[in-house]
Design brief:
13 strands; two-stranded antiparallel ribbon; alpha/beta; TIM Barrel; 318 residues; Alpha-Beta Plaits
Length: 318
Amino acid sequence: MDKELTGKVYDIQGFSVQDGPGIRTTVFMKGCPMRCPWCHSPESQAFHAQLLWIAMKCAGLDACTKCLDACPRGAIFPGKTLKNEATRETVRHIRIDRAICDDCGDCARICVRNALTMCGTDYTVEDLLERVIKDKPFYDRSGGGVTISGGEPLSQPEFVSRLLERLKACGVHTAVDTTGYAQYDVIRNILPHADLFLYDLKHMDSRRHQTATGVPNQLILENAKKIAQDGGKMQIRIPVIPDFNDSDESVRETGLFCRSLGQAVTVVQLLPYHNLGAMKYLRLDDGRSVPEAEPPTEGKISILKALLQDLGLPVTVH
């Protein structure tokens, strides 16, 4: 069965220290039901493989036109002349008509500089297990393991459940980084194989949550309660987004909810907004605007951290 079951992955990062305890390998599953405007990985949202274009890697049309010739739909055209940020040379770039492009990947396969790449690769459970288990000595020495992230990993439930089961059978600590937006039957199925949930809480007001992310929060909050009732462990993650959830009132309300979950919450993590993912929107070039906001100051984060600590919660900042 494992040889036939596949999951779509868009990245695998080794030696991660931000996605759970110890040194970890983080597997990023493709596809997410939310559309958070501050998302720093927009390539994670769609469930299908997507064509990305990295301008600074492109040789330019004066040196290479292979992609124009390779595209079966004629979706690639000559574009603007720009300065290469790496070499400072002036380069005539390509333009991709996303309304025509069907993400077939023919252009990426012939791009020698990998300026054109496909985001999203199908793995079997066995192939992915073989990939991540190589780092088990690092997991064992550091108290680390494997984290399944996304996108939203619970949107590929059968694959993720089976992968977690196999990892546990190999003696690997497992974590699931999730928005919590899934039917609880999905979570109940993976609960025996997940040592820890990295659980996002974005806002306690359901209407504001839906306006920002595209989905309400009732299911997310109910799932957190059920995980706690069923003996699961959670690291609650609060992305601190300016003018959305960074007020004292908003964070206090979230903190009170975390406190209600009792011993199930091992730590509350504040994740200050950053704009390091802005370039990824340009690589997709799918019409979405690049997020623009000022990251919260250290002083602001210190105030929010102290507020949560006053509620008796263990707090870290990442």
